[in-house]
Write a structure and sequence with these properties.
It contains ten helices and 25 strands. The strands form five sheets. Strands 17-18-19-23-22-21-20 form a seven-stranded antiparallel sheet, with helices on both faces. Strands 9-3-2-1-13 form a five-stranded antiparallel sheet, with no helix packed on it.
Length: 464
């Protein structure tokens, strides 16, 4: 009789060796170079390498840091890239500011007839004690580096993190759910102790197929402390696209603004004889004749926690300089026409502003950002106007004004004029009960530095 045991034994050993070989090959392929302890010592004590330490004002590498082209997204912080299932142009959407320990990396959506779909990429902070690469830890480490020998109370004791949690290339886990024609695909991966999550929702099977194919072909890279991406052999990767920091303000910048309140340092200025002057900014504003300065009117914070955080963020980056309006009639609860002047810190808000009359894309982004922040109402149209050597953004739309003794807001017509000057974004919000009153209202004139006076009326007419 033929004895199968030796053959089976040989087969088992061959299979075991093959599996061990494949496992070892996979481990090599998926392993980023482990940092040399000597290099780590140099990073803590840069004087050993002769390289200068990071300046305190230099921003750490943020989880939102990446590169975006019209067809590809690459995360600089987490070290992965994928071809997108839809183009970025006309499909990028704004998101509210994220909670304190969450990060929005990318958000795209489309709608075509009955078909619709979206892809959103987010990240959740590591658990406390395992947060070696959070911006806060990078910032605290920088302060320690620049002050050798000085104890830093911001640097918390860290729990030991195994090398395999930091050095191996990750992979995404996957789950798919559907109800009728609606599909929800979720991918998640632990990367540098963060939880990175990709959510794809659609009722279009073709879009779902493209999205799943994109996720199956995700490329992972090795991340370096200076933000460079390499492959496992150490060759530098050049990502496609431009630097990108996500569909909303990076969480670290929001947290920093809420902590530092930079808007409160903007000088308020003063009004004398119908003229507002702010020498710190270099601004003069001649008020409409016979208008009066209105008392401060704090904006009502929203109830929703996320909207409340966004509201607080705007307040932290903004200074209301002036409110002027027409005198109301006796017994009239609603204010008439009014002008509100605000100074915004665009760096605090991560707000890019146009640099030329042809920069329509940036103009649209500013309008979307103002609308997202809530306090500026709804933006319907926008355009760019150049006057006296200054570039103005002109927005028109509506504003819901809540009367002091009424629960329901009153919708007012609104025009917004905004220009960047002396590192600030100066914003005039002109509001009236209706469009006819808005077009007829007096506006006054502004002078920026040594330039010629600019009549706001010219801007009001230019938007037509």
């Amino acid at each position: 009789m033929f004895n199968s045991r030796p053959a089976a034994h040989v087969f088992s050993r061959a299979l075991l060796y093959a599996l061990l070989y494949l496992f070892a090959a996979g481990a090599v392929y998926a392993q980023c170079p482990v940092p040399d302890p000597t290099d780590a010592d140099v990073s803590v004590h840069p004087e050993l390498s002769g390289k200068p330490a990071k300046a305190l004002s230099e921003e750490p590498l943020l989880p939102e840091a990446g590169f975006l082209s019209n067809t590809r997204y690459t995360s600089q912080f987490f070290g992965f890239g994928l071809d997108l299932p839809l183009t970025v142009e006309d499909h990028e959407i704004m998101m509210p500011v994220m909670p304190e320990r969450e990060h929005a990396l990318l958000s795209l959506q489309y709608e075509n007839g009955q078909h619709r779909g979206y892809i959103t990429i987010t990240a959740l902070d590591p658990k406390p004690g395992f947060d070696l690469k959070t911006p806060e830890q990078q910032e605290a480490q920088t302060r320690t580096v620049t002050q050798p020998g000085v104890a830093n109370p911001d640097v918390l004791p860290q729990l030991p993190v195994p090398d395999y949690m930091l050095s191996k290339l990750p992979r995404f886990h996957y789950a798919l759910r559907h109800e009728g024609k609606n599909y929800l695909a979720e991918y998640w991966a632990p990367i540098q102790n963060y939880k990175v999550k990709v959510v794809i929702g659609t009722n279009d099977k073709d879009f779902l197929g493209k999205a799943r194919a994109a996720m199956q072909d995700v490329k992972f890279y090795c991340t370096q402390d200076d933000g460079t991406l390499t492959d496992i052999e150490g060759n530098e990767i050049k990502p496609k696209g431009e630097p990108y920091h996500g569909p909303t303000v990076p969480t670290f910048r929001v947290n920093r603004a809420l902590r530092d309140q930079p808007g409160k340092t903007i000088a308020a200025g003063e009004v004398n004889n119908g003229v507002y002057r702010n020498q710190s900014i270099g601004l003069r504003y001649d008020l409409p004749a016979q208008w009066r300065v209105l008392p401060p009117k704090p904006d009502n914070p929203p109830v929703d926690p996320i909207a409340q955080r966004e509201f607080s963020f705007l307040q932290a980056c903004t200074q209301t300089l002036l409110r002027v309006g027409q005198a109301t009639q006796p017994g009239q609860s609603q204010e008439g026409a009014a002008i509100v002047l605000r100074a915004l810190d665009p760096n605090c808000l991560s707000l890019h502003t146009p640099t030329s009359l042809s920069d329509k894309h940036t103009l649209d982004e500013v309008g979307a950002s103002l609308e997202q922040l809530g306090t500026f109402g709804e933006v319907a149209t926008d355009q760019l106007v150049a006057l006296s050597g200054h570039l103005f953004m002109v927005f028109s739309g509506t504003y819901d004004d809540a009367a002091h003794d009424e629960d329901l807001p009153v919708r007012m017509s609104q025009s917004i004029f905004a220009t960047r000057y002396n590192k600030l974004l100066l914003v005039w919000c002109l509001r009236a009960p209706n469009s006819t009153a808005l077009e007829a209202m007096p506006t006054g004139s502004i002078t920026l530095g040594d330039s010629a006076p600019i009549e706001l009326r010219q801007l009001l007419r230019a938007k037509k």
